[in-house]
């Protein structure tokens, strides 16, 4: 045991933790909008508190009389308005304003209109010369400039707003100091070969076949002479195709890390812009930079955003900006020499929608399929993601690998992280097996809803339904082995049965019929033991119907329509016409009905023979709300058949080096579990990740 712990400690890596010392409250970057707000507040304050002048408008004759009586202190003449504003002397305020004299401000003034500036100036000069008055006269020319500014202010505001918008759009898109003039520059991120953070093939678990495919690219970048001396040419491009989360981007980074060359990374959507011609310009700039850094790798992620087949966009036709960008990409990929050292890698999960010209030899010469990890690959992926996690001896990697069929690498990383969060929430010092079980339950099935209101009659109906599935899965050879059954609502389901899906490469007709029979077990149990059926089997019936139609129309597994397949592998569904006649359509419907009816009667027959065990199982489920495979062993005895995953592990045990600690739970004999929503087997990876169905 001590040696095992030492080995585990060697595999573990130190967890990076934030430093507690130093400046824990770093300064935030200064926001220039605060300056605008302060200036605006000052201007508003000056306008509000500066209104301390009371102005009274008078006639020209009254103004002349006030000037002759020496009641004016100073005069301001506005040339462009033909008006004059005069400040009243303090001793004359009551004479001019009368009863309003007490409400005037500190600088009372009078305003006269209708006279030219020259007439006002001549009159005041004559009075000053005649009576020797001290009256200050000023001419205001600033109002003329202000009037011109007000006239052109709307145009200036539009220009300023346009410049601000252009800077705003280009500022966050890597426009740089050039602003709008850099809109056509490539936004690819460059990971130089001198970078300290590198990804190698050691960081990529599984994907053994895909790594072999790209190994030749790495060898060419390291030793190009070995290929060029013999006249060989390295493939210009490789396309990574696979479901989301399988590690396509990580594999491309590993290629760059192993080859020790610059790595340009860009998304396909970065080529799409609102301006015409920008996408093509960015493609040209990207390949120009790549040639300067050669030898290098250019990685285009989600290339289907720009590489979709041309001529299918009826809204824009030939003027579509995406098509122009694709045309430039096609030209650049087939334009540089084969020995220039620029290799194109691209990733997509929709290779079926790409343009055929993009996939031809000379551009993307190879298509590397990155599939979902199998049992052995999942074990290696778990080893990578468990390195920074503190686990105890209850964790067995084989158990976890069997627990997660259909999971991608990203899903497995999410399981490990969720298990660590659950353990931290419970204040544990180590992540235990129970935390991983809860993590899978949480990710696949959703949160438990123990407070959901369910009547006792509904609870009994759900228990009988789930017990029907469990009983049939135990006595059908090709049905997926049962792990546990619960009637606790989780997500949208009122009850759920959890199975260990068999990862088969090919599926026989008998295996499919057993799966259909197990799916119909819930409805058959309701009909047989309750006497009435419910809506709880809606999802079961949906999956049975789809599977039966697939067996008849796609796989040619019908007795009356043998060896016929109406499946279109090109992805173009039949829209206006079907590839078969109306008589054949009726025959297909009849075959599907007969197939489902036979399996339904078969399910009722098995449940009738095992009625006593089914009743005990439903009663235990009502009492405990959850049962495991051990409960079925006590009731029905040990299952006659073992799972295929168990056979794979046993065959590989002698050749695979085990690094996990030995489990105390008998990992070789205990089946792992994956939640099966609505009592259905997980035939597709999306079923155990995103599908949420309702029981009832």
Can you tell me about this structure?
By secondary structure, the protein is α/β, with parallel strands linked by helices. The chain contains 24 helices and 15 strands. It has a 6-stranded mixed sheet with strand order 6-8-9-10-7-11. α10 (278-292) links the parallel β8 (263-267) and β9. Residues 1-26, 172-181 and 656-696 have low confidence and may be disordered.
Our estimate of the beta-strand percent is 5-15%
Distance between the termini: 49 Å
Return Rg in Å. Answer: 40 Å
Strand adjacency order, main sheet: 6-8-9-10-7-11
Mean pLDDT: 75
What general form does the structure show? elongated
Low-pLDDT ranges? 1-26, 172-181, 656-696
Helix content class: 40-55%
Largest pleated sheet: 6 strands, mixed
Structural class: alpha/beta
Number of strands: 15
């Amino acid at each position: 045991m001590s040696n095992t712990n030492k080995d585990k400690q060697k595999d573990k890596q130190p967890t990076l933790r934030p430093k507690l010392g130093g400046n824990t409250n770093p300064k935030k970057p200064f926001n220039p909008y605060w300056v605008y707000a302060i200036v605006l507040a000052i201007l508003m304050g000056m306008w509000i508190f500066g209104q301390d002048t009371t102005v009274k408008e008078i006639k020209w004759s009254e103004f002349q009389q006030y000037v002759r009586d020496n009641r004016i202190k100073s005069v301001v003449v506005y040339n462009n308005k033909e008006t004059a504003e005069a400040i009243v002397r303090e001793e004359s305020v009551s004479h001019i304003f009368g009863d309003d004299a007490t409400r005037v401000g500190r600088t009372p003034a009078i305003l006269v209109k209708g006279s030219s500036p020259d007439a006002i100036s001549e009159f005041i000069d004559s009075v000053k010369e005649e009576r020797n008055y001290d009256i200050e006269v000023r001419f205001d020319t600033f109002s003329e400039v202000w009037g011109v500014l007000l006239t052109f202010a709307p145009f200036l505001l539009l220009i300023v707003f346009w410049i601000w918008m252009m800077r705003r759009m280009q500022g966050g898109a890597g426009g740089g100091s050039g602003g709008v003039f850099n809109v056509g520059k490539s936004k690819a991120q460059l990971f130089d070969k001198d970078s300290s953070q590198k990804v190698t093939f050691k960081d990529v678990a599984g994907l053994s076949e895909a790594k072999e495919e790209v190994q030749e690219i790495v060898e060419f970048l390291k030793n190009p002479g070995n290929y060029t001396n013999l006249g060989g040419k390295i493939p210009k491009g490789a396309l990574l195709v696979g479901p989301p989360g399988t590690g396509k981007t990580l594999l491309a980074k590993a290629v760059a890390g192993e080859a020790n060359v610059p790595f340009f990374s860009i998304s396909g959507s970065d080529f799409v812009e609102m301006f015409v011609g920008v996408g093509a310009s960015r493609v040209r700039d990207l390949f120009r930079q790549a040639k300067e850094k050669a030898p290098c790798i250019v990685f285009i992620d989600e290339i289907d955003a720009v590489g979709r087949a041309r001529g299918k966009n009826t809204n824009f036709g030939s003027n579509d900006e995406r098509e122009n960008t694709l045309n430039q990409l096609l030209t650049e990929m087939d334009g540089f020499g084969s020995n220039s050292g620029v290799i194109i890698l691209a990733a997509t999960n929709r290779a079926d929608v790409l343009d055929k010209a993009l996939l031809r030899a000379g551009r993307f010469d190879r298509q590397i399929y990155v599939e979902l990890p199998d049992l052995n690959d999942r074990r290696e992926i778990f080893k990578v993601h468990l390195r920074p996690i503190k686990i105890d001896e209850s964790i067995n990697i084989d158990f976890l690998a069997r627990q997660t069929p259909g999971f991608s690498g990203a899903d497995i990383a999410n399981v490990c992280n969720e298990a660590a969060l659950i353990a931290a929430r419970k204040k544990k010092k180590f992540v235990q097996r129970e935390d991983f079980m809860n993590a899978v339950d949480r990710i696949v099935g959703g949160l438990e809803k123990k407070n959901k209101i369910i009547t006792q009659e509904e609870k009994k109906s759900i228990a009988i339904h789930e017990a029907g599935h469990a009983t049939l899965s135990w006595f059908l050879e090709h049905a997926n082995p049962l792990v546990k059954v619960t009637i606790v609502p989780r997500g949208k389901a009122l009850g759920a049965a959890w199975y260990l899906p068999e990862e088969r490469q090919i599926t026989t007709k008998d295996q499919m019929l057993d799966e259909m029979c197990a799916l119909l077990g819930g409805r058959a149990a309701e009909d047989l033991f309750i006497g009435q059926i419910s809506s709880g089997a809606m999802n079961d019936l949906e999956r049975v119907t789809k599977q039966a139609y697939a067996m008849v129309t796609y796989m040619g597994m019908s007795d009356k329509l043998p060896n016929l397949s109406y499946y279109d592998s090109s992805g173009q569904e039949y829209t206006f016409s079907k590839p078969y006649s109306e008589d054949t359509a009726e025959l297909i419907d009849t075959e599907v009905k007969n197939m489902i009816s036979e399996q339904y009667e078969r399910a009722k027959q098995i449940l009738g023979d095992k009625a006593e065990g089914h009743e005990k199982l439903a009663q235990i489920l009502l009492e405990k709300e959850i049962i495991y495979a051990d409960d079925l062993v006590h009731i029905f005895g040990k299952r006659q058949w073992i799972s295929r995953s168990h056979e794979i592990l046993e065959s590989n045990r002698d050749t695979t080096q085990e690094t996990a600690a030995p489990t105390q739970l008998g990992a070789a004999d205990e089946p792992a579990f994956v939640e099966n929503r609505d009592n259905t087997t997980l035939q597709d990876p999306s079923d155990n990740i995103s599908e949420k169905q309702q029981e009832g």
